[in-house]
Every structure is written in structure tokens, then in C-alpha cells.
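Listing 4. Sequential folding, example run.
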Amino acid sequence: MAIPASYRERIETRVYPAGHMMYIHPESRVAQSADLADFVRRASNR
């Protein structure tokens, strides 16, 4: 994917034990929700 370098440095990835099936692993779903809330908080303060 042709993403400019200035954007690539802002891309974050996370890996959760549930993989793509978050509905079968409550701990992963909770962690993902916390990570998303943190992302939104940080993005809102820019």
C-alpha cells in the first residue's frame, strides 16, 4: 500500500490472543476496548 512515510509512523497495531474472533475471548475484547479508548483520547488531544 502506498502510504506516505509521515502517515506510516502514526499507524499502530496490536495483536490479541483472540485474533479476529474477539467474541470468544472476553479478555481480548476488554483489552481492545481499552486500547481503542486510549487511542481516541490521544487523538483528541492533538
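-- end of first protein; second protein begins --
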Amino acid sequence: MLHGFRPGRAIAGTAALATTLLFAGDAAGSWSTPWFVVFPVVFGGLVPAAGAGLVHYALRRRRFAISASKDGAAAPASTSGSQAIR
């Protein structure tokens, strides 16, 4: 099953990857990263990820509502004679 693009998850994953790379460089001895850097990097990524997720959710709901209103223009199945009314 193919899943759609989720921009909030992409942003959150990028923030987590950046944190991983910062501490991997520190562990390798390339540079020195203080332990408290993890908080602004991760939370700095989660806030825009939440915003992007909310915007994406609102757009998907609106797109679904528009397509659902177009589908309701036809006559219901019960009036076409194909359904038995009890």
C-alpha cells in the first residue's frame, strides 16, 4: 500500500537526523557538542512539524469535503428502482 507524503513527519525526521549527526560528529571527535543542544534542535524541529501537519490535515479535509459534495449531486440509489424499500 502506497502512503501519501506527510510533510510534518519529514520535518520531524530531519530534526532527529540533524541531532543524530551532531552527536555522531561529537562522538567521532570532529567537534564538541554540548549535551543540552538536543533540546533546541529537536523541539525546534517539532514545532514546525506540528504546524505543517496541521496545515496538511486541514487541506486534506477540505479536499475530501469538496469531492464528497460533488459526489452527492446524483440521485440516490433508492429512487432509481434498484433498491427495495421496506
